[in-house]
Protein 1
Amino acid sequence: MLHSIIQSLKGGLIVSCQALEGEPFYGSDYMARFAIAAEMGKAVGIRANTPQDIRAIKQVSHLPLIGLWKQDYSGSDVYITPTLQEIEGVIAAGADIVAMDATLRPRPGGMNLAEIVEKIREKHQVLLMADVSTVAEGEEAEKLGFDLISTTLSGYTDYSPQGEEPDIQLVADLSRKVGIPVLAEGKIYTPGQASQCIQAGAYAVVIGGAITRPQLITKKFTDAIR
């Protein structure tokens, strides 16, 4: 069953349906509708934040769901599913895959990444995805037993390349160096960029704001016109 979920993602598009508080489409009902639209557009999976959104989307979509829970903790820059509490919440909500920050930065709560993975494996049969920013982090994630890797955090750690374009080099390097699927995610705004990621070795491509944040899409057009 778990292997078939991974297989179903191969070569496809995963749509990240997320909105922050204060944005016009914030709310689980809106995210569920975005998920329906993504499925109509032949996406192969959904990525969603918070147990509420995960539950709402699972009610209307049969696509595999990558779940996460963003939480800020003082003293740590790790915010994507940072502790066991968030991981348990995402699993309970019905996520098929749990995405978490797998960078080498200090985590809140006193547990390191290896300990967290071990605890989850003891209790649950669930797929784990490592959001990373460098090749070294991806290689370490594979050693720890993650099932998939995503380049989500490239450009969002102070030691990874900073830029406006997707980190296609990281996709290519990880695809060569690890034996588990590598998903391309982050700063992918055009179909051409998505295609480049697949050509570089990405198992699948994750796109969020370019599809599900109309205010950002609008701004790109208005900036270009001006």
Note: The chain has a mean pLDDT of 96.
Protein 2
Amino acid sequence: MKLLLTDSGVRNESIRGALVDLLGKPVAEADALCIPTAGYGGPYGEPGGPWRFLSGRSPSPMTGLGWRSVGVLELTALPGIDRERWVSWVRDADALLVNGGDALYLCHWMRESGLADLLPTLHDTVYVGLSAGSMALTPRVGDFFVGWQPPTGGDAALGLVDFSLFPHLGTPDHTMAEAERWAAGLPGPAYAIDAQTAVKVTATDVEIVSEGNWRLFEPAG
């Protein structure tokens, strides 16, 4: 997969340029599926958040970027749908737009639905994550971001990339000092990113795309 892991969506021209580059065509010629599931999870989940994400009313630009078409893929519904049907929907999409909310709740439903197993086979699809939607692909989210408790416990995410993410850098509850403490509890590399920053991932490269602030934490020793 080609990944664009954002803090708060496509907030500036640099991130939008990275999205177009990954798509290989203008946004207006691309079809997207949006995944609202994470917005229901965790202690702060509520129905308004997923609606704002789906409708393009969110302050984090994702579905309202001018896509040729946008559909909804609700992960909690997939176990009751014929697998061949929904897999065809996913494979036909140019991009998956994955909402923020609770990263571990999202990981749980990615596994339960079967999407987690499908993701590594989607070589031409662009995965665009928003906050928790980005963190879900990392090895671990860190104790700081554990809200909803998975049945197996712990803070393990899907591990499709080899670095962790600390989003919302620079907001009152997500200071650089807090990011340093978070990163110290993780065994691998980790990025702290703000709203004007994204991580662009291809099969051969990891690139920071930013008009704001970010920091890479390397593991000690």
Note: The longest strand covers residues 2-6.
